[in-house]
Amino acid sequence: MKQIGLLAAALSAQAAAAAPTLDMVYGAVASDPYMSGEGADMPPHPGAVVEMARAAAKACGVTLKLSRLPGKRLLTEMQHDQHDAAFMFSHSKEREAYFDYPLRGAAPDPRYRLTTLAYSLYALKNTPPAWNGGNLPALGAIGVNAGWSIADDLRAKGAKVETAKDSEMNFRKLQARHIVAFATQNHIGDRYLEDHPQAGIVRLQPPLSRKDYYLVFGKRWHRDNPALASCLWQQVGVLRESLLPTLLRRPWYRQP
Known about the structure:
alpha/beta, 10-stranded mixed sheet
């Protein structure tokens, strides 16, 4: 019996060793309900997209090593192939130069997106800028979280952009009138408005844009593991339809 037990333990260890390990990183700023907690913290309910990533890795037989990094450091380390994968990222040509998206032709394939999110401007209710959907250069300084691609989109349209480390700091800058508006994802901005009704902040119409977000892979890892990358992207597409709606209904991932 002792020999059988030792053999079972050896086989179990061998199976564990055979499972490839995927070093995956994501941002250190909360983006509820998709990514929860701040800094290096991974709470018991870490976010709907984190749970999707874990489920995709399990389905593809991958051992997942998850960690969180500040946005700029994450981009720099992914650029230098220090991690295998990252989420959640919208597409830009700059980012395409240093990590890989699921492509259909020359463009990202939306069938394999994690989710789609809208961006809007948030401003003080009593003195909102006269936003008409196209007059960004005339508005004044717009706050954006550091490392977010919406900053490049705004600059390309002539806007003056000021970055801050996170949403909380940008909302404080808005209330102190250091910026005229804060450009962020609707689910983040609306959650702040719900939690801070006394702040006197409103979401402006129309929205700035809508963007698809993806799981991306480092160039070297994708080149060495094309079949595994394909499996993970396909699982993301399946889980977005089957698991994500269920996760977003969980009470700890409540949406505004």
